[in-house]
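hi! just following up on the protien thing from before. the input was this:
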Amino acid sequence: MLFVLQLLSREIGHWLGRRTAVSGAGEPEGVGVIVGGMLGLLAFVLALTLSFSSARFQERRDGTLAEANAIGTAWLRAVAIDHPRSAEVARLLEAYVPVRRDFVQAPLDTGRIAAIQARSDALQGEMWGHVSALVRERPDPVAASLMAAVNDVIDQSAAERLAFVTGMPPTLFWLLIGMTFATMAGLGYQLGLRGMRLRLISLVLITMWTVVMTAILDLGSPRLGSVRTSAAPYDWTMQGFAGGNRIPPLPAAR
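and the predicted 3d structure came back as:
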């Protein structure tokens, strides 16, 4: 669609330029200066949107790693405490990781995302209930450390949820689209004034702009396109769970 609309804008501009050239009212030199400025400004907007999209993608990726690490830390502390409630917290964390992985990998489906988030909230509430009961039963630094770890798990899930909700602002998106079409129309107008078609090189330019714009929009879209956040940290965390908590025997006295 971007390619076709850019091509259409260029052809309309070229048609208007040819009509203006026939009437003798055009000034090709002045138009060339303006079109050069439009191309430069469009390049700046492209760089701005690329920077924004790259920052949002990095934020999602960092959040995924931070959340997986927080879950792993909470699980290690839970299995280290010899108590039924801490063992239940560890079991819930093991069930929690696949849910968070599904959240990261979910497509743009509001119903599915809401169901995953509801499951996450339910598991968080159950874990926090067990931790609260454990702290009341034994208010010591060991239980407090588990409470801090579970609290970090909940905080990281909120941060990751915000990262996946935050996409490219509509204003920036329409600014990029509008300036692209206006610039292509201006380029076609300039070529029409000079009586030049240059369709092949124009197609190359439009193709390049389309590829770059598509890559930028893909990078900035959390749940669309081929550039997606990897869920590998959650898989690594689940692999760590598989080893369990094996306590080695005391070393022999020397």
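The mean pLDDT is 88.
The CA atoms of residues 134 and 140 lie 10 Å apart.
cheers
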